[in-house]
Amino acid sequence: MTWPKNSPEVDEETWRDWQARFGESDKAAGFDIRRDFQPFNQMNDMFTRAFWDPSVRSKDTDGFFASYRMEASPRRGEGFAQRDFALRNAAWAVSDIISNRAGEKGLREGFQGAIEADTPVAPTRAALMSPEEESIEIKRLARFFGADIVGITEIDERWHYTHRPDTRSMRPLEERLPEGLTHVIVMGHAMDFDLVATYPSALAGASTGREYSHEAAVVIQLATYIRNLGFEAVASMNDTALVIPYAIKAGLGEYGRNQMVLTPEFGPRVRFSKIFTDLPLATDTPRRLGLAAYCERCTICADACPPRALPRGAPDLGPDNPSAIKGVCKWTSDAEKCFGYWAKLKTDCAICMRVCPFNRRYDRWRDRLWRWLAIGPRGRGVAPGLARWWQARRGKRKRLRPRDWWKGGAAD
Ligand code: SF4
Ligand code: SF4
């Protein structure tokens, strides 16, 4: 079978332009991007391949998606009963309303295509403050609508999908955004600590669904505000562009071995949304906080992954797998093994999030003390060896039994 290419190949002029525009901030972010880099085609992500690629599609993957449409097959095993699937699907409900509303146009808004605006851009532009003041205001409003963390960075087309699927035919369509966009507002949405502690289970999937539903509301509300000011704003969740590099460039965290953005506020327990805009804004800078440095000598997530989908070694150019972006030296999962496990479970898995030592409650002094030892105030751990010893004594975070969660129990 032939794979859709992660096209287009990058010509010399484009490569030099990218080096000039992004080289410095790539260095600050710790990105190692090679000359054979190719922007990603969303046809190749696992969720899309599960619809068109016979090497991925199976009874299990069909059953995985069906279970979100109320065709869950409850089974023996704690956390997989009808009530667990019911809560998970209820948590997704608002996100589903948005992503299903333009299905007849071949669009799955928020996932395979940006969220379509219900509000036109006002014909008259509001008087603006300075970009710095506008950024402060936008962050305040993002938090008002419900985002937990917010950062701003410049548009970087390297992370934009070249194509998305037409969800009716699963044929590729060129991904297009309006002309003239300059900035991306990236928002983080913290997942519930106790529900995440119940991974793997259908119940735990409620922590993911709840944040997608939150994201949908927050990006629509903030984009509507910007459009009412007379500026373009495209509300986006997992669609249109890879959010991880954008979140890192916006200073929200660092890239971890578990393929997630590790944030100082919540560790990896965060989902991200974004808004593309031409509102003049001041940008944030990437921060080297010491979280990725901690990963260099930690393999807790990789050791805990049931299908062994996470790498244990140093960052590299990744497996020869169409779902891995080409030309970026980083920790890369075997996406086929990972999604194969999700399909068997009939729900998402985030064991690698649950067990990460940075997944803590930072409103507790002992967790703040551990973080201070591990990464220190300036990204140079105060005593990372002591943090590792403390972590090893404590052992990896245990699963909270779903039946205990239902009785009001909390994770340690
Ligand atoms: S478990 Fe360890 S290696 Fe994995 S992301 Fe967390 S800190 Fe990094
Ligand atoms: S989500 Fe689960 S299967 Fe996938 S890499 Fe993490 S632990 Fe492994």
Q: Give the overall shape, derived from the CA principal axes.
A: globular
Strand proportion: 5-15%
Tally of separate helices: 15
Strand order of the largest sheet: 2-5-9-6
Bound molecules: iron/sulfur cluster
Query: How is the quaternary structure best described?
Result: single chain
Q: What is the averaged pLDDT score?
A: 94
Terminal CA distance reads: 48 Å
Counting structural domains, the number is 1
Number of strands: 10
Radius of gyration from the alpha-carbon trace, in angstroms: 21 Å
Provide a descriptive summary of the structure in words.
With 412 residues, this protein is of the alpha+beta class. The protein has one domain (12-356). It has helices at 12-29, 46-52, 59-67, 82-100, 131-145, 193-196, 205-228, 243-249, 291-295, 300-304, 335-345, 351-354, 365-375, 384-394, 402-406; strands at 33-38, 149-154, 163-166, 171-174, 183-190, 233-236, 254-255, 261-262, 270-277, 326-328. The strands form 4 sheets. The chain has a 4-stranded antiparallel sheet with strand order 2-5-9-6, sandwiched between helices. It has a two-stranded antiparallel sheet with strand order 1-10. It has a two-stranded antiparallel sheet with strand order 3-4. α4 runs parallel beside α7, α5 (131-145) crosses α7 and α13 (365-375) crosses α14 (384-394). The mean pLDDT is 94. One iron/sulfur cluster binds at residues 256-258, 294-295, 298-301, 356-358.
